[in-house]
Predict the structure.
Amino acid sequence: MSNSEPRASRSIKTDQMSSGHQGLHLVQLPAAWWESLRQILEFETGMDLSDSRGGRLRDAVAKVFRKSSHFTAESLENTETHARFVEHLAAELTVGESFFLRNENQMQLLRQKILPSILQDNQQRQEIRIWSAGCAGGEEPYSMAILLQELLGADGSWNVSILGTDLNPVFLERARAARYRPWSFRQTKIYEDSRFFTPVSGGYQVCEPLRRQVRFGYLNLMKDVYPSGLNGTLGQDLILFRNVAIYLKPEVTRQILKRLYQALRPGGWLLLGEIEVALVPDLGFEVHRFPQATFHRKPWETNSVSASSGEIPVNPAADVDLRNPRTSPMKEPSNWKLPVVPPLPEWVPLPAVQRGGRAEPRVPELQAQKPTFVAPASWQTQIRQATDPVQRAAFRLRLAQSFLELARTQEAREELEQSLRENPLSIEAHLLLAGLFEDLGQLSQAERSYRHALYLNRDCALTHFHLGLVLQQQDDPLASWKCMQTALQLIDNHDSQALVEHGDGVCYGRLREMIMMVTGDIRE
Ligand SMILES: C[S@@+](CC[C@H](N)C(=O)[O-])C[C@H]1O[C@@H](n2cnc3c(N)ncnc32)[C@H](O)[C@@H]1O
């Protein structure tokens, strides 16, 4: 062991040598090591780990060391291994507590007022889009499918699209398996209803028709790009963001709520956990206080063309903060270096350290370079006037995007298909159409569209990634794995901070990280 070796590194090694992982004496790790780790985790997840919550971080570190022998002082010096260590910790720190039909008052209101009102709004187009952001093991999105099934009965003409997203891949795996123990039904006997559940050993399985309406995806609300047509988060009728904000820093919650606002169609509803309602700052939501519960709503008029400019900002795709972390370095404690907390991957801006050493996560601001929403009528005029088919196709693509933002998916699909007839070489249109098919649960059509896009450009890492996701959902793990490997190889040719082509603002570094998450690296 050399004398120049950093103190924290030495401390871990000594413990390991004497007593192995089980015997790690975490108390010996220097305070600055914990502080750095806390800052990084708060920045990665938005969680508040300050003060008394710091104990949770200690427990999580102890557990991760116990569970995985991969993490040693040496291996943590490697940036990629350290990033994995952080992901393991994030998964360990998340609280996946959830159960079916959670909060009877809110469920009653959804059943009696909110969902019927959405169905009424969407009567003509017969589709409904719901997003459970922070869905844990899936009880919440499946509960929405149950409520809708109760309301729609045998009417099979409605297109129901429910999306559940979370940052913990283990929870997502559970959600996809859709098998629940009795504890998930602690306040309901809905498992007795054979329309929704089948008894299986040790619990209950969600039945197939409901499962087909719900899909799950990895999405870190703190880091990823949304709303976007590429991950199905655009144009929602209802967003559930319940019992997530209580774990987050207020500034993080504020930024997430701004994005959720943009993900709602005009007149769309937001539901928070009962005690989180008080956390919503004034962001333009209407507050609807019913005797049973409070809902927030995006006003109807917000997304219409404003009289002056005809445009309002809507898509934060370009809002990802791509500032070079080297321009805002995290200060190191004066007497030692950060041996086991190597620099964050390059594309992630490091947390700003305030005086006194306290870090505040810098959440990407939404104001920066916002593309604008243009109402369909403007695009329709442009389409009528365009004489060149390629230009007309480009306008149709924009029109389709406007329809998506307004949750008018059928019209979006028609425009995309027409756009592709006019210009079959548009990769962007193929990708958007593929995303739409995924939303609608039409996986073989989604696969076909991604393959069309690949035919036009085999070097697009994003297309390989999305095709891999679709193949994963189609139970073809080998083909999916190959796509992900190809995507990783292609990513290697790019600067990690560079924007991914057609990626709606995601950068190559983050795309690599997402691939690591969805391929199960975290569960090694
Ligand atoms: C207590 S559960 C809530 C589950 C469900 N919404 C409910 O109310 O029953 C909180 C969930 O939020 C997820 N979560 C926490 N921070 C997140 C983030 N930054 N991005 C995405 N999901 C996050 C956690 O992984 C966890 O599954």
In short: The chain has three domains: 7-93+321-327+336-360, 104-303, 372-523. The domain at 104-303 is CATH 3.40.50.150 (Rossmann fold). Residues 45-46, 94-98, 102, 134-136, 140, 166-168, 171, 220-222, 242-244, 247, 273 surround S-adenosylmethionine (CB under 6 Å). The two ends are 29 Å apart (CA to CA).
